[in-house]
């Protein structure tokens, strides 16, 4: 369940001003950004996507005075970075909070049901990747091919090679991921209904 956000009104106004000088455009961007963040938390299997999205905005609000003057770049990217860090925190917290009584049950569940779900998800991913156009399939595979700093450098090289900005590359990959996500969801639904 979503909690009430603790953003003070003046910080809320500063966030809007940071997103865009035109208040109406900024409000529209904020709504779209909330929607995108909620989807990101859903895709990453976070238990409370709305509450996690509120937390991202709260964390940004705490730093907004400084960010408006020091952050260079698209503000949405900063929100996505905060969300990525929060997802890591959530997954680390979930990993470390298993009671001793549940440890045996969790191990058994992971060995049985989780293994089967993971295999189904992987089968659906491969099937859905095959349904993409050749260009989009190659793009998405290449985009996620590297880790850490190599990933950042590689994506910058990809964007340059494709004649677009890194931001436009992210948007393109995001749209492909949306299609993939819907395809995987349909595939998983079919597989679970046929069990």
Task: Please provide a written account of the structure.
- This protein folds into two domains: 1-97; 100-195, Arc Repressor Mutant, subunit A (Orthogonal Bundle).
- It is built from eight helices and no strands.
- It is globular, with a radius of gyration of 19 Å.
- With 195 residues, it is mostly helical.
- It starts with 8 loop residues before the first helix and ends with a helix.
- Helix 2 (23-43) runs parallel beside helix 4.
- The chain has helices at 9-19, 23-43, 49-70, 75-96, 100-131, 134-143, 148-162, 166-193.
Write a compact overview of the structure shown.
The protein has 195 residues and is mainly alpha-helical.
Task: Give the helix/strand layout.
Elements: H1 9-19, H2 23-43, H3 49-70, H4 75-96, H5 100-131, H6 134-143, H7 148-162, H8 166-193
Helix pairs in contact: 1-2, 1-3, 2-3, 2-4, 3-4, 5-8
Please tag this protein with its features.
195 residues; Arc Repressor Mutant, subunit A; 2 domains; 8 helices
> In terms of structural class, how would the helical and strand content be classed?
mainly alpha
Distance between the termini: 31 Å
Mean pLDDT level: 83
Topology as H/E string?
HHHHHHHH
What is the global morphology? globular
Q: How many domain units?
A: 2
Write down the Rg.
19 Å
Helix segment tally: 8
- The total beta strand count reads 0
Strand content: under 5%
Q: What kind of sheet is the major sheet?
A: none
Q: Which percent bin holds the helix content?
A: over 70%
Q: Can you tell me the residue ranges where pLDDT is under 50 for at least 5 consecutive residues? A: 98-103
């Amino acid at each position: 369940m979503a909690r009430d956000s603790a953003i003070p009104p003046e910080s809320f106004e500063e966030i809007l001003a940071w997103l865009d000088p035109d208040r109406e455009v900024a409000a529209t961007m904020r709504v779209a950004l909330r929607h995108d963040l909620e989807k990101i938390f859903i895709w990453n299997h976070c238990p409370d996507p709305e509450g996690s999205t509120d937390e991202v905005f709260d964390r940004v609000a705490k730093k907004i005075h400084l960010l408006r003057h020091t952050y260079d770049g698209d503000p949405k990217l900063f929100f996505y970075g905060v969300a990525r860090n929060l997802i890591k925190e959530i997954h680390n917290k979930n990993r470390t909070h298993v009671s001793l009584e549940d440890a045996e049950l969790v191990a058994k569940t992971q060995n049985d049901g989780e293994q089967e779900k993971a295999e189904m998800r992987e089968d659906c991913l491969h099937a859905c990747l095959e349904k993409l156009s050749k260009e989009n399939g190659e793009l998405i595979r290449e985009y996620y091919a590297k880790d850490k700093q190599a990933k950042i450098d590689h994506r910058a090289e990809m964007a340059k090679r494709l004649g677009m900005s890194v931001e436009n590359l992210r948007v393109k990959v995001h749209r492909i991921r949306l299609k993939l996500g819907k395809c995987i969801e349909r595939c998983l639904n079919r597989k679970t209904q046929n069990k």
